[in-house]
Design a protein that fits this description.
The termini are far apart. Helix 10 crosses helix 11 and helix 37 crosses helix 38. The chain is mostly helical. The strands form three sheets. A five-stranded parallel sheet has the order 2-3-4-1-5, with helices on both faces. A two-stranded antiparallel sheet has the order 6-7. It has a two-stranded antiparallel sheet with strand order 8-9. It is built from 48 helices and nine strands.
Length: about 950
Amino acid sequence: MTRVMVFHRKDAYAVRLEARRLISNLLMTKLYAPPLRAQVVSRPRLLALLDQGLERKLALLSAPAGFGKTTLVADWMYTRAAERDAKVCWLSLDEGDNDPVYFWRYVIAALEPVIGETDSQAIALLHASPPAIIPALTALLNDLSAIPDQTLALVLDDHHQIHNEAVHGSLAYFIEHIPPHVHLYLLTRADPPLPLARMRVRDQLVELRSADLRFSPDEARSFLGETMLLDLSEDALTSLEAVSEGWIAGLQLAALSMRGRDAAGIDAFIADFSGQHHRILEFLTEEILKSEPELVRSFLLETSILNRLNGTLCEAVTGQSNGKAILARLVRENLLTDPLDAAGEWYRYHRLLSEMLRGELHRNAPERIPELHRRAADWLDENGLEHEAMAHSLAAKDYEAAAKRIRRIYRALAQRGELATLCGWLERLPDDMVRSQPYLSLVYVWALSYSGRYDLIEERLQDVETSAALLAEPDRSLVLAEATTLRAVIQSIAGDARGAIANAEKALETVPMSDPALRLIAHHALGNGYRLLGKPAIAEGYLLEARTMARALIGPILQTAVEMRLAQVRTMRGRLHDAAEIFARLAYPDDSAYISMPNMSEAFVRLADIEREWNQRERAFKLVERGIELARQNPNNLALLSGYLTRMHIEVTGDDFIAAAESLQLADEIGRRQNYPYLSERLATQRAWLQTMAGEWDTAVEWAEEYAAQRKGQRTYGSLFDLQELTLARILRSQNRLEEASEVLDQLELEAREAGRGWSVLQTLIQRAVTHAIAHQSEQAFATLRQALHRGHNEGFVRIFVDEGEPMRRLLGEVYLHAHDPQPPGLKDYLTRLLTAFPDPVIPLTRQTGGETTVPKVMLAEQLTERELEILAFIAQGASNQEIANQLFLSVGTVKNHISHILGKLGAQNRTEAVAVARHIGLLET
């Protein structure tokens, strides 16, 4: 039975063990550079060009097959790079590396000899859900930057095998930010989609192409005589070089074909050796195969389907018991076989020879090919090489075997974040097969959900439910329970609160207690549904239960999601300090295994909004910019939309309405790309709110009229509904429709109190106080405001008061002047903090009977700098601006600017008041 993956909780040691397991699970033969050949043609002109790669970001070797790219770089590695004390790390790529997670796992493994055992954040980020590719690369680049004394060259061989855009994009990011002592060598048959033109202009690129790599006449003579050990006449050498045009593989294959021939036979061969490369290949294939005994010829053809060979695998594929001996003979005869490991166990055919042999096999024995692939798949599967086994099953079109393997290993792949690989395999199976098998459909739906492809999920879920009807019990009920759980998850993401709640409750009735992971997901969906419905008190209960289950069961995948929702619920309830503590823990985790890119970005954004409410504008802006930077790496991530909206609110606190409008526009562009109706309502409401803050009442009224017309019909819920109602009340108040505004606020307060939405209750109290004040209902205004202050001061709410503008400042001033004991401890300080947060802040001064002015204690929203403290001391001494400027070697204008900042931070109107406040709070000696 298919089940959602379960992660056991990891401590730091377990994380290291997991990283070691993931690395050891890789095919290590891909990390070995080709050995140094005994006889190799010296090519000093090209080796000198490769040396220049150690002064550039990228050395690109781009040429068709058979031009000696790999041999040349291997020769350079063993000679010139070693002389320069440069460490070379090698990775040979193949078709299976078209998954960003798999690709970078291999890169990290290749770099491990330099960066040490892989227990860094990079591995944890790669295996987050979804994978956090760019943050993982940032961590990897930081690891590389920490070894500046070691010149490092990373060689990626056969890069033409990569066609995944996400891999290309992440590689471009890696190259852009690569440390100065790290250099990339890319060997490929075709130019990669990298910013090569820009790198040429910046002199960051060294290029070697076909024209550079061709053998010169002298190099061709050296190769044929010294390497291939052919004693050819000058005429024969000239003819071969002319026909091959310096094409190294052509010369090598020709030399192999001429082995054992006498002078007359060589002349005859050369006379027939002509034509374009594809004709030469056909000719040489026939010549090579003709020269081998039938047993070896059959062995070559049948093993050509393999990307890597060892003796046991070759015997399994060919059915020959002497496969090891034949492979050993081919190695001894140098028949275009390259060793892939130091032990001499694994080999591969030259790429060109492999392609030639496969073509011959397709022409002469196509009926044998599926069976050969099946045999290879079985051996590879038994030996733990699951990716290569799947490749052969799919090549054989053995879809049943492929489906069984997917069902068996999909959890491991999902746990490692190899979602592109999993989706790719499923998409290569016949679509009707996937749709008709509920287990396969469920795997596909989970893969789609993890990769954010929500638009495809509903149709696939319907396939699961349709095909599940054909199953016998209990499998049918189990499949349907899992499908119901997944539908609840997707509905909660799409903002369908009621649908999510209904399906999550149904799932908890049907998911067995023996499947705690699935029950956890259902609890999470249920809690998130009630959060969306605007009932955080109920949501918190389900999320706390999910948190308990998550801590017992799993690590980074669902635990961070549960924590995120719990922090959002506590924000709704007005418990800012609790929420901020969780958001900070998610944004800056102690354990790298718990880092997940979407949660990181959303945590930064949510924490920024709380810091904004606390009036820490600079800190909030840095946090939201970090969240936006992370969220940009995932175009389907709605955290990016939230990031822009939060930045808009922060910009409003600085009265930067132009920037705020630009942030809203960016959010709007994301919203239009999503297929979620609630987003358009959310964005329209945010636009109306921004218009009210900017004083654009005419356009805001248009929204209010449209919203008021439909609000009694199908209404929204939760935070969006609260924002709609509060914005409507503000607009009604601007029209002097105070009674209607009060009705809206009274009803909203009642609902918010019942549901436990503490933040919204506080907002309604504040707006009601302002409404009463405008209506000249002073007693009600002060009573309501005192309720708001009692609610707000423990959690440090600031902007929620300040955003109401001048009417609220006047109210707070009056309350401050009439505040008296007994009162909640700290309330007077809280009032002072609120009053100093307004533009051009004024702290009311109280007069004692003797006429002495006393100054309230101030909680500074922003601390004074060292320079400002220095200037404050001169002010206390009675120094003039000019005298201060002379003493500190500053201009008078600069001194005036500093004094303005000092007055603003202290909430003082003039220099005398600033000195009094500073002495009262201990900044100056009394």
